[in-house]
Design goal:
By secondary structure, this protein is an alpha/beta fold. About 45% of the residues lie in helices and about 15% in strands.
Amino acid sequence: MTDEAVTGPAAFTALGRDVREALSEQGFDSPTEPQRRAIGPIANGENVVVVAPTGSGKTETAMLPVFDALSGENRFGIGALYITPLRALNRDMRERLEWWGQTLGVEIDVRHGDTTDYQRQKQANDPPDVMVTTPETLQAMLTGKKLRRALEDVDHVVIDEIHELAVSKRGAQLSIGLERLRELSDSFQRIGLSATVHDPDQIGKLLTGNRQWRVIEVDVGSALDVSVQAPEVRAEDEQLASELMTDPTVASHVRKIDELVAENEATLAFVNTRQTAEALGSRLKELGTRIGIHHGSLAKETRIDVESAFKNGEIDGLLCTSSMELGIDVGHVDHVIQYNSPRQVARLLQRIGRAGHREGDISSGTIITSNPDDVMESLVIAHRAKNGAVEPAPIHHGSLDTVANQIAGLAMDFGELSAPRAYDIVTRAYPFTELAEEQFKAVVRELASNNVVWLEEDADRLEKRRGTWQYFYQNLSMIPDEATYDVEDVASGSQVGTLDERFVVNFASLGEVFIQRGEMWRITELDEEDEVVTVSPIEDPAGEVPSWTGQEIPVPQVVAQDLGELRGVAGSQLAAGGDTTSVARSLNKRYEVDTETIATGLETLADHSDEGYPVTTDDQLLVESGNGTVVINACFGHQTNETLGRLVSALLGQQTGSSVGLETDPYRIELTVPRGVRANDVVSIIRDTDPDHVRSIIELSLKNADSLKFKLAQVATSFGALKRWRGSANARFGKNRLLQALEGTPVYDEAIREIFHEELAVDDAGTILEAVQAGDIEIETVSGHTPVGSGGRDSGTELLTPENADASVIETVKERIQNDRVILFCLHCTDWKRKTSVKRVSEQPNCPECNSTRVTALNPWDDETVSAVRATDKSDEEQKQTERAYKAASLVQSHGKQAVIALAARGVGPRNAARIINKLREDEDDFYRDILSREREYARTRSFW
């Protein structure tokens, strides 16, 4: 190791002769920017974090010095680990590094969950010099007797796309895994490869355990050319809309994407959800665009085929989700399209950064927007991206189920070890440096009580036991285990893709039509036991778009605040008499986007200003009320608004004794309130609530939420307290059983911590309350709903399915509901209860025992409500169940079988059933269309209920 690392154009001189000759043979005349700055320090043996866009040569930056160090060495074990977040990246890295390995005499192999037993045995007996693997497979490798010997020789660990791991529990798990590796191989060089991040030092601490490291960051903003466009609806889009069975606005988007794909040789088109990929892909294929679809729920073979087709020029574009953000090799990309706002600066930089990368290239991209909020958010994000202003992305500190997972791993590693030694290893990892000894002991006791490890308390020793092996291998991954169904083509028997269980539970039934791979499929068979959906292809442009969980990208507070600032500037100019065009011209100097697009983004704000309403900004709230709702216009982002919304709804519910509905987006909190509640009631809560009480109020409100119940089940599994759990609608826990059993345990503490970390922003919400109460944030109130306040009702949706489902879909919905089962239960005598199919219900149900028409209709599994009605001394929850039963009975009494049909729909309670029934409509099909609309809304929001 030299004292001074070689950098700059001469960086390759830091490498040995064999590597330099290989570089010349490959035509690498001069290093890329990250190579100029990082190869020298890496060759010098330093721990390094390289922050640069995908495609800028980061892999070679890390691996050329590693190859140089390994070539010519004679060792038994593994010299270097190359860890990636995805198996697909494993495959890519193997192919990308193979030539270098063969040329330099360095053996490279891949190991992950699909590696055959034969190959695993071969790797254990004759380890490669470089092992390409995933964080989960490293966990398994650390416990293998022969592989532990091979890992003793590790001198270098490279973690690719480390930013992707850092913000999840996978990163926390890996950080302890590296400390377990250090127990075998002592010190080793650590190299992290990352896209642009807010705080590279956090990545460095995670990578090294807060040991010495260097950050080498390449500025990407200056090499970025991003345009924001709001396609104008043209005359031809009207005809196109008819052909594609969509509306003219979506048709204009489809046309614009088609034009951009045609203008470039190779285009990646990113969307924010898999639903959008499927829906948009089906329209583009109808149009004849040469584009493929790529997302994580498609079969592996399908993804590989479409990647190859794009790389070989057989298709011109790839419609993809976040999986393609990472460095999967699909060849050169000319241009990147982002459909709808990317929501986050980091995502835009990662996605647009995939274009270009030839020497001197600019990464070019186009954001296609769909509504005023979308335009303004995109303007803000593009501006921040050009200035390198990436939002914070906090890592998971102190996740207790990760500690549980790694305690079992240490027991597997050593057979037995002292608890203090295990605590020392765990707390060397950066996310756990502040883990209290008492918390650690509580986790160990929980594992011991679940028969995962043996705890000898007197001697303070941990030992492996019979259940350790099974627990550890069932919990290699920190990704929650949720059921997915394989989708198989009945004709070919090949796998089309997968569906999340929530989609299957809510929509999948025989005859249902849905979109996957951009094609239409009808369900012919549904095997719940083997979790297989068998389908046949059909020609139908109006299928349902599947829902997959965990997909919504939250807008960070800093982005929402910048949008609020933009609203303030534009709003004051509009209020002073400016029109959208003149104001857009003034904003053009800052945002460098065409005037017409900016003017489109100002349309709602202009309507708002014309009516004389105050503008919501970064330091002003607007609370409006009317028609049973109160809307808090607040530019604080998804998580902070969700927290404020839960706080206000919980306190309002407590004050009124009624439930309060809640929907949030980055700029609005919409509350469905009991009669008599007004804007000032909400303002009083915001002004009077002690900021120090936010956390306790939110935690208390979570105890009534299904989200905590599901999270508890997932975390309990990772502690070994439950056997493998799937989020099945059929696996129904008693309302409070899990909560009562686990409250006060590390399982409960971790479930709460995780919800606070991933869904909410408690500290930020408390800070906002403080600012309001100090007068730094103003609050205005208005009666009625404003254009800006109403704008959120359609601004957040990305569903491209037509508003009116076609006749075949309606017929399927009818048939499904008629065959669904319901419980009919008499509330007058409470003796008669009958479970039957909807089609067998009479036009006016009545009780055969007492002849009363006060009959309620319940879901077929809802025996709890029957028990609640019959209970004499009712709990609060039983009282609520009883009230819902009586509301449903009132509907059945007034509207007969029509009410039973509405109540039998999925996720439609008495209040929504009443809205459906009371709506004037032309024919029966519209009645079922309204039911379908409510079911879709329920499917999108169910995880928050």
